[in-house]
Design brief:
Blueprint: E1 15-23, H1 27-39, E2 45-48, E3 64-65, H2 70-80, H3 82-102, E4 116-120, H4 123-135, E5 141-145, H5 146-149, E6 156-160, E7 164-165, H6 168-181, E8 185-187, E9 192-198, E10 201-206, E11 210-218, H7 224-227, H8 229-234, E12 236-246, E13 255-258, E14 263-268, E15 275-280, H9 286-289, H10 298-312, E16 318-328, E17 335-338, E18 345-349, H11 355-370
Parallel strand pairs: 1-2, 1-11, 2-8, 4-13, 11-18
Antiparallel strand pairs: 3-7, 4-6, 5-6, 9-10, 10-11, 12-15, 12-16, 13-14, 14-15, 17-18
């Protein structure tokens, strides 16, 4: 939302000078600030968001600490070849490893490494995917029998044992505090309405405080097209709906994917009420869900509840309904790309549903490129 000169507060006419400005305060924006401060402690950083930290998809997901399902990886190998899929999977695993080493050793965010299991209804498909992953030398993989799962109508599952869960709001709130202690300037409720070149700098015209920076990172993911239409050509917004249900006395240990229904679910054991988090079913209204408008729909919400009650064999009361906006690229890989419409600006995003596990490693790669530091993943992510 823009503001007239009458509506703007006096301080908005002042210009805050920084070395780097980051637009977007989700997991990607905060991760960029973290790596910049770690690699170059003297750098002056401004982190800007139109709302609050984690107000977008980063605070609206299921809190999966994961690189994706076994079905996702197997299908990627079939589509792109096993060598390319293995290289990208290696990058994703590096992102999870960096999160564990840098974030989970410093912050308490209800993290638990209890594994992620992909559910299968066909023995043939399960064995086919298992063979592909074994050829790719995927580690920490375990086959789960039908009896071990405890869900009806399933043949079994494949489990990545080193993955887990996290409270995304708690994680990003702790990370925000850490960054502020390191001197990062955080400007919330400060929507950027315009960006323009000023010599060798970029000026961001904002709702409250204008920012001038030597370099700008755009960490906008599914909202990229709102900032500039050229970014909308790179990243398409897709809405994901979720539901919280009263789980009663049932106990689930782990994250679960059901590719047959495009559903993911887990228990939140930290909630005062035993809670099941379930999301997905986007393809039921695919055209309508290709949107950056935050809303829930009866078709998908009812389908999610019916699915959860069916697979667990019990009726459950609804505790909450919500949605979040993801950003998908054509390759379903994130971009670290120079923005074509303004100098000294880099776009980082397009996590295609895997932002909580992938953004930290992608930000690490983006900062390494910015600081001209070589990495072993320079050919993994799409560039110019």
């Amino acid at each position: 939302m823009t503001q007239s000169c009458w509506q703007k507060k006096i301080e908005a006419s002042k210009i805050q000078q920084v070395d780097v400005a980051i637009v977007g305060a989700g997991i990607c924006g905060l991760s960029l600030a973290y790596w910049l401060k770690l690699k170059s402690p003297q750098i002056k950083i401004a982190l800007i968001d139109s709302q609050e930290v984690a107000s977008g998809a980063s605070g609206r997901n299921a809190g999966f600490y994961t690189a994706g399902s076994t079905a996702y990886l197997a299908n990627l190998a079939i589509k792109s070849g096993e060598l390319k899929a293995a290289a990208y999977w290696d990058f994703k695993q590096e992102s999870l490893k960096l999160m564990k080493e840098h974030l989970f050793t410093q912050f308490e965010a209800h993290q638990e490494f209890w594994g992620s299991t992909t559910l299968y209804r066909s023995d043939r498909e399960l064995e086919e995917h298992l063979m592909i992953l074994q050829r790719m030398k995927v580690t920490n993989l375990k086959k789960i029998s039908e009896n071990e799962l405890g869900f009806s109508g399933l043949s079994g599952g494949l489990k990545f044992e080193n993955e887990g869960r996290v409270n995304p709001i708690k994680l990003l709130t702790e990370l925000k505090k850490f960054l502020q202690e390191k001197g990062v300037l955080v400007f919330e409720h400060n929507a950027v309405s315009w960006a323009e070149e000023r010599g060798d700098k970029v000026q961001l015209v904002c709702a409250r405080t204008n920012i001038e920076a030597g370099h700008v990172f755009l960490a906008l993911n599914g909202y990229a097209g709102e900032f500039h239409p050229d970014l909308g050509k790179w990243v398409a917004p897709k809405r994901a709906q979720m539901l919280a249900l009263d789980l009663g006395g049932k106990v689930l240990n782990g994250n679960y994917y059901d590719p047959a229904h495009k559903v993911y679910f887990r228990q939140d054991p930290t909630s005062a009420t035993p809670t099941l988090l379930v999301g997905g079913m986007r393809l039921l209204e695919e055209v309508g869900e290709n949107s950056n408008f935050d809303k829930t729909t009866s078709v998908i919400q009812q389908a999610l509840q019916s699915y959860a009650e069916g697979i667990l064999g019990q009726k459950m009361n609804v505790l909450a309904r919500w949605s979040g906006i993801m950003g998908f690229t054509q390759e379903e890989k994130p971009y670290v790309r120079t923005a074509p419409f303004i100098k000294h600006t880099t776009f980082v995003g397009g996590f295609s549903g895997h932002g909580m596990g992938l953004a930290f490693g992608t930000a690490h790669e983006a900062v390494a490129r910015f600081l001209s530091v070589p990495t072993r993943f320079k050919d993994i992510l799409p560039v110019e």
